[in-house]
């Protein structure tokens, strides 16, 4: 049998539907993503018309602050301004993404950065991005559908929009920023790389050299000193230049007047009656003299916000929208995280002896 000429094969293949060929080679999902019509997204033209926020595990092992031993891979939460591509804020954590991660990255987006930079010895760097965004674009993770986020966004007039399911191109700007960030991280000692094949025999834990605070400082230097000042391929100018140009066109952004109030609005919370002994949350009692007029007299539950990183105090929202610090009733107790508290409860439950009923003797 004579072997067909390659031109004949190419002509025959050209008669097939390219989507069907992709489906046969790579599967239906890959073919659907490659050939699905892409509708044009709304393209903001001015700063803070639209932010995108997302989380990602970092391709890096970090060390603890005391013994400098490996403790795992941190998560990064990033926010990008779509119009200018500047990084509006970021937050590092060893915990999986949560409502608090969103609250902290949003707070950094909205507030001035001078104090934050000074605390890390980075006063020479420029990070002028701050203000309340008009809209935030998110994926469909649970923390982005929390009541705390929706309530806070409503309080500050922020519109929330969500990425359509199974259409990753709608979050392309933040995805590319995460990819760019990980590309820089792969050059650090202790990197886990993107996959097992690329990592090879490299011992990430043994080679790791950075603590969380050192990684945070490195990220600030990488973003503010390099990324913001490098020409962006889509903008044909550095993001910081695009920001300054955009701000001249837009003018002053809406600013947060009370930083603590802004942060509290995005924290998780629950409603509790104010009883004679104060507020009880997570089986912990809280008391402050500001509760005296309401103790035992409140007829409707009050909104109580909490920071899972520190349960030594909660934040009571009064009828005027102000937040009051309510500390432990027993001030001798040490601060504890929600995760530590839950772990302690589970340990106590496991150790509690099973009470067996004795048979009645008649």
Structural class: alpha+beta
Second CATH tier, the architecture of the largest domain:
2-Layer Sandwich
Sheet having the most strands: 5 strands, mixed
CATH topology of the largest domain: Nucleotidyltransferase, domain 5
> Mind telling me the CATH class of the largest domain?
Alpha Beta
Taking all Cα atoms into account, the compactness measure Rg is 26 Å
> What is the count of structural domains?
3
Percent of sequence in beta strands? 15-25%
Mean model confidence by pLDDT = 87
Supply the CATH superfamily name of the largest domain.
Ribonuclease H-like superfamily/Ribonuclease H
Silhouette: globular
Stretches with pLDDT under 50, minimum 5 residues: 355-362
In the sheet with the most strands, the strands line up as 5-4-1-6-7
Helix-strand pattern: HHHEEEEEHHEHEHHHHHHEEEEEEH
Q: Count the beta strands.
A: 13
Q: Count the helices. How many?
A: 13
Which range best describes the helical content: under 10%, 10-25%, 25-40%, 40-55%, 55-70% or over 70%? 25-40%
Amino-to-carboxy terminus distance: 99 Å
């Amino acid at each position: 049998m004579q072997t067909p000429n390659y031109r004949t094969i190419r002509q025959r293949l050209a008669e097939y539907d390219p989507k069907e060929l992709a489906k046969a080679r790579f599967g239906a999902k890959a073919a659907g993503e490659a050939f699905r019509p892409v509708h044009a997204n709304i393209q903001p033209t001015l700063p803070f018309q639209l932010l995108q926020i997302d989380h990602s595990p970092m391709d890096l092992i970090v060390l603890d602050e005391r013994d400098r031993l490996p403790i795992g891979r941190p998560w990064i939460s990033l926010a990008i301004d779509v119009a200018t591509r500047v990084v509006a804020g970021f937050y590092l954590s060893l915990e999986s993404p949560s409502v608090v991660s969103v609250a902290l990255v949003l707070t950094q987006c909205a507030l001035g950065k001078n104090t934050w930079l000074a605390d890390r010895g980075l006063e020479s760097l420029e990070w002028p991005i701050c203000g309340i965004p008009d809209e935030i674009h998110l994926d469909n993770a649970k923390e982005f559908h929390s009541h705390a986020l929706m309530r806070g966004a409503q309080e500050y007039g922020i519109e929330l929009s969500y990425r359509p399911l199974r259409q990753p191109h709608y979050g392309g700007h933040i995805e590319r920023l995460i990819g760019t960030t990980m590309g820089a991280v792969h050059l650090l000692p202790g990197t886990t790389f993107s996959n097992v094949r690329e990592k090879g025999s490299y011992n990430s834990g043994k080679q790791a050299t950075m603590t969380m605070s050192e990684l945070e400082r490195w990220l600030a230097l990488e973003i503010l000193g390099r990324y913001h000042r490098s020409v962006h391929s889509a903008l044909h100018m550095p993001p910081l230049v695009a920001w300054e140009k955009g701000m001249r066109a837009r003018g002053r952004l809406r600013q947060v007047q009370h930083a603590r109030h802004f942060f509290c609005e995005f924290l998780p919370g629950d409603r509790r009656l104010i009883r004679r002994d104060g507020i009880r949350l997570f089986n912990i009692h809280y008391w402050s003299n500001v509760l005296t007029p309401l103790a035992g007299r409140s007829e409707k539950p009050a909104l109580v916000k909490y920071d899972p990183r520190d349960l030594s105090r909660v934040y009571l929202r009064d009828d005027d929208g102000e937040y009051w610090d309510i500390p432990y009733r027993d001030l001798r107790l040490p601060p504890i995280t929600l995760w530590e508290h839950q772990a302690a409860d589970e340990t106590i439950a496991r150790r509690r002896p099973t009470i067996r009923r004795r048979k009645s003797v008649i």
